[in-house]
Amino acid sequence: MAIATKMMTCRMMSMSPGMPSSSPPTQSPPPTSLPLRTIPGSYGWPLLGPISDRLDYFWFQGPDTFFKKRIDKYKSTVFRTNVPPAFPFFVGVNPNVVAVLDTKSFAHLFDMDIVEKKNILVGEYMPSVKFTGNIRTCAYLDTSEPQHIKLKNFAMDILKRSSKVWLTELVGSLDTMWDSIESDVCEKGSGGYLIPLQQAMFRFLVKSLAGADPSNSPEIAEGGYAMLDKWLALQLLPTVKIGILQPLEEIFLHSFAYPFFLVSGDYNKLYEFIKNEGKELLSHAETEFGLNQEETIHNVLFVLGFNAFGGFSVFLPGLISRIASDTTLQEKLRNEVRQNAGSGLSFESVMKMPLVQSVVYETLRLSPPVPLQFARARKDFRLSSHDSVFDIKEGELLCGYQPLVMRDPEVFDEPESFKADRFMGEEGSELLNYLYWSNGPQTGSPSESNKQCAAKDYVTLTASMIVAYSLKRYDTITGNSTSITALEKAVK
Ligand code: HEM
């Protein structure tokens, strides 16, 4: 097949789905004989260029069309443009970027020898550090900063320690979630799942990652998830298209940064909750990682609230909606689950469910939860796309928009279609080299020397477990992007 031949020229590894490789393909592509091209595109007139691009991005075109139109205009997946936020109130935020929009050019973002990631988690604009107790948390640190080594290892250690209770806490929270949706479906004919899902993920993540039990604090148990939602929203609003009536969105949501004091009360409650209920974790962080109480709590809240809760809150509704709205797919998944589940579900049994895992990967491919990724050139270097090579200067900001990169026709057949079995079999496993949702390939391994998501494998296994668990509990689940409209319980 053409795709297989094409892939031979790229970094390639034969992997079992979900298993990390021993040597991650996080190097930029090797030098090629492709033609050297000046990076097309321009930043436009000062002030006017950034504001016109901002209006296109948020209002007239939307992010997908914004990037697609420029690919067509410049006949290149690499070009210069501005990305918001910008003028008038984001003084000192330089909106100029080099967009990298195919799998090959995007892969340079993972090569920590040539790019750095200091303070650019959401782009050149960085939300105030007041949101994180005046400290720069792990995700804002570059790999060259000694504190990144400490905090990344701490994050990976939290996950390792939590793996003892991960499954029980997940299943307990899913039970509560489905009980609540089920009773709504019985009483009202349908049940919204967005809030029950967030409540379940909040409880599960707080208990497993921080070892803190929300039921010891009624206020946190009741409203902790909403506190995180508000805290996240205020940090991210200037960078996200919401889709409400324009020009209101431009005036009120994208023109200035919201101040921390609007959520400081809630944040302080979450801080006190971790301080009181997560004592074992705090003392472990101090003895094993030399982290003081304050930096531990702010980092735990960031990992828990921003990375984990934020990531799952964006990813899972799309996954549930996909399954609940496709009865044919659901039947195939259910058969696989029931054949492999045995007496009870475990992560081992889920790893024997290639279709379930492939559906999780395909959802991540078509709807990557973190759409934009950034990296700054550490030095001058040559960047390759599929057809050209470009000179990048030290200090330039690269911006990858994953939803387009993950539809790269050079790598993915019928890139716009949802193909449930895309990542199955040998060819499917090879495609995992090009699945980048975690800021690295799915065959890579997070480490202190890269910026790949610490929970790369936990996320995909947890999502697979949610699918398997739900289809073990129900014979059919019917619904849409917000609600479940019918449930048929499995006969035990
Ligand atoms: C669906 C859920 C998740 C998604 C989509 C997600 C996605 C990502 C992405 C894209 C990055 C890289 C950001 C960048 O630098 O551009 C990242 C980093 C990170 N993620 Fe996740 N993540 C998820 C869940 C989690 C969970 C459960 C944890 C729990 C420990 C976690 C911990 C981290 C950490 C610590 C980093 C920073 C890595 C570093 O600084 O080297 N993530 N995540």
UniProtKB/TrEMBL annotation:
- Gene3D superfamilies under this entry? Cytochrome P450
Region named Disordered: 15-35
**UniProt feature, compositional bias: Pro residues:** 22-33
Keywords on record: Heme, Iron, Lyase, Metal-binding
Per UniProt, heme binds at 453
Q: Name the needed cofactors.
A: heme
The answer to whether the entry has keyword Lyase is: yes
On whether GTP-binding is a keyword of this UniProt record, the answer is: no
Q: What GO molecular function terms would the record report?
A: heme binding; iron ion binding; lyase activity; monooxygenase activity; oxidoreductase activity, acting on paired donors, with incorporation or reduction of molecular oxygen
GO annotation, biological process = fatty acid metabolic process; sterol metabolic process
InterPro entries under this entry?
A: Cyt_P450 (IPR001128), Cyt_P450_E_grp-IV (IPR002403), Cyt_P450_sf (IPR036396)
- Supply the Pfam families for this chain: p450
For this chain, the family text in UniProt reads: Belongs to the cytochrome P450 family.
Task: Supply the name of the protein.
Answer: Cytochrome P450
Give the organism, scientific name. Dovyalis caffra
Q: What is the lineage of its organism?
A: Eukaryota, Viridiplantae, Streptophyta, Embryophyta, Tracheophyta
